[in-house]
Amino acid sequence: MNNVLKKKSRKMKPPIDASLLEFKFPELMESRLSSGLNLLIIERPELPKVYLRFGMNVGQKSDPDKRAGLSQLVANTIKKGTRSKSYSEIVQTIEQVGGELDTLVNEDFFVIHAEFLKDYVKTGLELMSDVIQHPSFPEPEMEKERYKQVADLENEKSSPDFLSQRRIEKAIFIPHPYGTYKTQQSLQEIQHADLVHFHEQFFGPQNSFLVMAGDITAGEAEGLAGKFFGKWSPDNVAVREFPNPVPLSKQRIQLVHRPGSEQSHILIGNILFPRNHPDFVKMSLLNKILGGGGSGRLFMNLREEKGYTYGAYSSLLARKESGAFIANAEVRTEVTLPAIEAFHEEFDRIKQEVVPADELKNAKRFLRGIFPLQNETAAAIASLALRQRLYELGDDYWNRYQQKIEAVTAKDIQKTAQKYLPEQGYVIVIVGDAEKLEKSLQALGEVEIYDLNDQKVN
Q1: Please, which of 44, 103, 227, 318 could form a disulfide with 378 given CB 3.0 to 4.6 Å?
Q2: Under 8 Å between Cβ of 316 and 323
Q3: Residue range 87-98, pLDDT digits in tens
């Protein structure tokens, strides 16, 4: 009986569809308010909701010297009180209309994202504009957020992921502030006046984009945006310029001493290019082939063939002004050196050998196929529109994205690897027990040792 059922289920299994979903970015209507705010409108009336995305060209890279963490405090506190509303009144208003409003800041951008039913979008926009234009940064809320960040920093000392990421980003990006990390001291330096000054310096309509996507017409969107943002006219927004990261001329080996660690957390990385660089799609495919999942070459080599680890991967840091390629694995202490050598085997192989047609085809199918699935909703479309403008990707970028993937050849992958995977320009960061690792790692060159506070100790 069981055999019959098994045969029947195999017979009923649908054939694999060779076709892929095509992505069509909807019509994007743009206008500029009298205040200078850039308005982007996408009409998607399928659901009675409107999704709002407000983004500015200011992020953690804009934190003042010795006050790293300021932008995060601003992001976490800006929604907790305005000149006319307390935090409890803001929360109550959002809950009464069944809406959502939250903030985030990354290295490059400050974003406020919200969603409201169509009937309450006026209420949502009024609240959003008040939070953006008239925050009070209540001191008790600021102190709560400062305490949380200080506590998080202490907890992160036990995380190999955090320790390795902090060290490699400092090594790759400094003197650019992408390599700057907040500390307990920098957080304690921040005063309430710093939050107010940051807001006055960087928040302004000329520096910002407002996306409205969902069940709303262009006329309705322009009217509401004009009502709540049309008279916003602060002083000229400050513009900071940053020094460029310097590509390494030789390999650097950096060991973060984590006493008693029984494993080594390995990161290997090097500097890349800004997000809007024309080679981004080629590098994305190369990354997928090398380490983008369980079918990647790094995974197959370090786990399946050699048994050094549960998984080995790679990823791209895609930022506005610069980026990085980073490969990673967590391995047993005794195989740290051969694991690093295995990474280099795969870096060399993809530079020396043309990628087989099937392997490239599978990588393309994955990147092309997942893109429409990830961007079906009005909320996702709103985020795409905002990213397109903040990263300066150019008009019609998302409509051409799948075609750009399909156009990449095996020879393109090889040339990209030769160009961006240097022979000696890597930073190799290992988090582990230095007493067990330092001697063996000296085979790679001079070893720099850091403690859990990221202070160099040799």
Answers
A1: 44
A2: yes
A3: 999 999 999 999
